[in-house]
Amino acid sequence: MSDFPHMRRLAATALAFALVGCASAPAPVFWTGFRDHPHGYLSKDSAPNAAAFLSPPPQAGSLREQDDIAVYRATRALKDTPRWAQARADNEIETPSAPRVFDEALGIRFTPERMPVLTRLLGRMLGDLETIQTPAKRGFVRPRPFVTEPAETCIAPEPWLAASGSYPSGHSALGWAWALVLSEMAPDRADEILARGLAYGESRAICGVHYASDVEAGRIVGAALFARLKADPAFQADFEVARRELVEARQASR
Asked: Which homologous superfamily does the CATH classification assign to the domain defined by 28-252?
């Protein structure tokens, strides 16, 4: 009996040290933008090459190009509407909080600090996308719509954007790839997630920085990206941890 108070003191001391350890645990460190963005999972040699599997953009004067131009002109009328504002917000793609575009679809707030492995997984996918799509953008060299026919865009285009290729759309590719990842992690919300992934790509045409066919090609690239990553062991390992993070975050919000 005389040892019992001593054991209680030891337990209390151990708990105190555990709480101090938890309180002093460092917060996850994330990147801030393009310059310190994490690299992808795939090497250049192991990644798909969009220039090898994508069809070329519509030929000049073709019906498909005429349709692209018609969509571009028609969507200029969306300026100052809620959909225009959403397209502007959907321009964000590089920061850790960019996947918050799926908040409503997921039914929770995407918080990087709460889901660090998922945040980094989605961020690294942008690095892989650059590897996959760059040969196509540089090979096809399609001018962006606001360069060919100057008009209002939802963002002020920087010089690098005007100089970069329009085909395929990188935002559309990543938005669709993210949607495929998240819909597999939260299958009960798949319809909402996939719809939001499509809308994220459509925002690029509404914004006026891509043609509609650029968006469609981007989704093909996004699907190819996701398919290849599913065969990568490092991605598979992170996917399982990230999935548990998302499941736990969703459970905690109920």
From this structure: Phosphatidic acid phosphatase type 2/haloperoxidase (1.20.144.10)
